Amino acid sequence: MLAVLVLRFAVVLPVLVGAGWRRLRALSGAQLRGAASLGLILAVIFLLETYGVVHTSATNAGLIISLTMVFTPLAESVVRGVRLPGAFMAAAGLSVLGVALLTQGAGFTAPSGGDLLMLGAAVARTVHVLAMARMESVRGADALSLTTVQLGSAVGVFAVLVALPGTGSSPWAAAADFDGGDWLGLVYLSVFCTLFAFFVQMWAVRRTSPSRVSLLLGTEPVWAAAVGIALAGDRPGWLGFVGAALVLAGTGWGRSAADRGREPADRGPKPSADPARTSAQATAGATRTPRRQTSETSGTPGR
Predict the structure, then answer these.
(1) pLDDT 10s digits, 225-279
(2) Does the keyword Ubl conjugation apply (predicted)?
(3) Which of these, 64, 62, 58, 55, lies nearest to 101 by C-alpha position?
């Protein structure tokens, strides 16, 4: 699996470097380090998701990762020091209950290792989205260059891990065994599921809030459930379907509750950084008003 991860990222890197070489060279040292740090988080996400999905169903994996929709507003509120409304906490509890029902659809037993790995991936995604939005070092750099550095940093992590003993075949050996269908699938993963997905995420999170970006991630379980049931033969049972509905309802409710709780702070007047200056400006305005009124009354032009 590590060999496939190396190939998946390495396929698009030469194209990205060639297309954005001038902008890539324009990045400062701080921007390079910041993007590389984001790439390390990205590598953790892919490792957790890759090994997690192998040990659970496609439906479970997609629905558990949707908890990013809840985790992101929660983490953002902690970072910003804004208290979440009670409705949001109720929605988060509903989502957790839905995940419990979904993962225990065949009987209430301890969660599988794959479910826990996917839960860790949801947490890592939250950290990644928040870091992209709040890191000062990457502001001002274009999204394509930052995406290139991120993917390069991630593929470096995978290359180091695959070189360790006992981690499977090398990327070259894996590539030699690929047929035309395998290469087509790899190109699809590289272009659409890696480059396009994370470029758009990087572009969007710098123009809106992390919580709103998490809404895009929340559409994933719908597709994961459909593919898991239609193609992979998943049969979550009636408890699983109830859990899936609760996860989707809870994450949607949590998003709307978080937005409502943030609106008063976003729309309220911004306090002045210098109260004395504000007072002086108000006083000056008050003293100028009679002068304008006197000028208008006497017909003498005011200055």
Answers:
(1) 677 778 777 777 787 788 778 888 887 887 777 667 655 544 444 444 444 444 4
(2) no
(3) 64
Q: In terms of Cα–Cα distance, which of 155, 152, 124 is closest to 48?
A: 124
pTM score of the predicted model: 0.71
Q: Rounded CA gap, 117 and 193, in Å?
A: 20
